Amino acid sequence: MAKILDGRKISKEIRADIIERVDRMKEEKGIVPGLAVVIVGDDEASHVYVSMKAKACKSVGFHSEEHKLPESTTQEELLNLIDHLNNDDKINGILVQLPLPKHMDENLVNSHISPQKDVDGFHAVNMGNLTLGEESYVPCTPKGIIELIKRTGTDMAGKNAVVVGRSNIVGKPAAILLLKESCTTTICHSKTKNMELFLKEADIVVAAAGVPNLIKGHMIKEGAIVIDAGTRKLDGKLVGDVEFDSAKEVASWITPVPGGVGPMTITMLLENTLEATEKLWNSRP
Ligand SMILES: NC(=O)c1ccc[n+]([C@@H]2O[C@H](COP(=O)([O-])OP(=O)(O)OC[C@H]3O[C@@H](n4cnc5c(N)ncnc54)[C@H](OP(=O)(O)O)[C@@H]3O)[C@@H](O)[C@H]2O)c1
Q1: Is residue 131 domain-resident?
Q2: How many angstroms separate the alpha carbon of residue 125 from the centre of ligand 1?
Q3: Do 99 and 149 fall within a single domain?
Q4: What is the residue range of 97's domain?
Q5: Which residue in the list 116, 117, 118, 120 is annotated as catalytic?
Q6: 208 lines ligand 1 (CB under 6 A)
Q7: I need a labelling partner for 285 at 20 to 30 A (CA). Which of 37, 154, 164, 237 fits?
Q8: Whose CA is nearest to atom 35 of ligand 1?
């Protein structure tokens, strides 16, 4: 029977450390880390995420700003706001909540954020540096996934890792990070033939497909670490990509949905914002 990787508990521990660092920063330097979250339009789920992020910021003593823009906002207006935030000393991290309305180019908007304030890690400079193995801001969900695997105490070097999903937000950066940990890494996607063949060989499975119960217990190798980033509503319940009940009988560690990867994502956003603040102030004379 698998042990549960409790994202809520691990997040709480990390946030306690963040609070200490923020208090020290305020006391010694009079600095308060600041995060600005920008949202365009009325997408209900996106508004819930934004208020969760603002609440998390307040809970660790950050300055936080929410910029809620109507659906009719032009791309130029959004870029002007980003320019303003790029030059605002109170703001150390900027996040533009996705998805953006169809009349906007997400890559262009993300690339307008100063790479030094790109705490989501989606800017081409940060993505490029991540791929090159240079210092960069790491996208929050994949960063949280690696942190969860580390908490199992497993030495990742040489392990077979399979990532299901190849999006720029989760799958691709998660695979790059696993490679950085010296895993032998395979990416599966919707065109992969016989995914089970790859899963059966995987010591570490990262599921990020957004397909409820795609991966079942019989597809997983005995003793695998199973990290489920998937979240979809099924009959009013939030479910992951992994069929939890069958997978927990085979895996050594498994994340629940909800309460696994989700809480870690916001905690990693706080960590990236604090890191951005520390870097900025350490670089000043
Ligand atoms: N917990 C969190 O904080 C958090 C954060 C972000 C996302 N998520 C969740 O993570 C999941 C993935 O998000 P995303 O933004 O990466 O989604 P996405 O952009 O839709 O990407 C899904 C990926 O899964 C692949 N895929 C789809 N069906 C598949 C199948 N049957 N077999 C194998 N691969 C398949 C797709 O392959 P193709 O490329 O071939 O289409 C694609 O690469 C979603 O459930 C999302 O809600 C959670």
Answers
A1: no
A2: 23
A3: no
A4: 30-114
A5: 120
A6: yes
A7: 37
A8: 190
Choosing from 5, 143, 191, 231 the residue with most ligand 1 atoms within 8 A of its CB, the one to mutate for a pocket test is 231
Report yes or no on 197 lying in a domain: yes
128 vs 78: CA distance, rounded Å: 24
116 included as an active-site residue: no
**Residue 105 placed within a domain:** yes
Does residue 225 form part of some domain? yes
Annotated binding site: 165-167, 231
Q: Are residues 227 and 159 in the same domain?
A: yes
Structure tokens at 177: 């990070």
Give the chain's domain count.
2
What tokens appear for 71 in the block?
Answer: 């659906």
Q: Which of 53, 117, 143, 172 is catalytic?
A: 53
CATH code, domain carrying 57: 3.40.50.10860
For the question of whether the overall pTM of this predicted structure is more than 0.90, the answer is yes
Q: Which helix (H) or strand (E) holds 148?
A: helix 140-150
For residues 196 and 216, the answer to whether their CB atoms sit within 8 Å is no
Residues 6+ apart with CB under 8 A from 27: none
